[in-house]
Amino acid sequence: MNDCFVCTKHDSLSSDLTLHIQGYDDFVVAHAPDRTKDSSNLIGALIIEPRIHVQNWSELSPEQAAKLGSGLIARI
């Protein structure tokens, strides 16, 4: 989707800024960007984003949701 911030970010995201976990290619794990005015974002905070465009986590397939919940979060 052209006007989606996350999709645009994924298109230009450098591989050295993401955490690759074998078998979990449906998701991007990266450091959370600090968009606060006072730089109060937690240093080292990670975010998990699906590589496909969804507006809500409920739009993930059952298989993707299962990978996210039981596998990926446990490995991070």
Counted by DSSP, the helix tally is 2
The strand count comes to 3
Largest sheet: 3 strands, antiparallel
Distance between the termini: 28 Å
Order of helices and strands: HEEEH
Structure description:
The chain has helices at 5-12, 62-75, and strands at residues 18-19, 27-31, 46-50. The N and C termini lie far apart (28 Å). A three-stranded antiparallel β-sheet has the order 1-2-3, with no helix packed on it. The protein contains two helices and three strands. 29% of the residues lie in helices and 16% in strands. The mean pLDDT is 77. It is α+β, with helices and mostly antiparallel strands and 76 residues long.
Q: What descriptive keywords fit this protein?
A:
alpha+beta; 76 residues; single chain; globular; 3-stranded antiparallel beta sheet
Explain briefly what this protein structure is.
This protein has 76 residues and is of the alpha+beta class. It contains two helices and three strands; from the N terminus they run αβββα. Strand 1 and strand 2 form a beta hairpin.
Topology overview:
Elements: H1 5-12, E1 18-19, E2 27-31, E3 46-50, H2 62-75
Antiparallel strand pairs: 1-2, 2-3
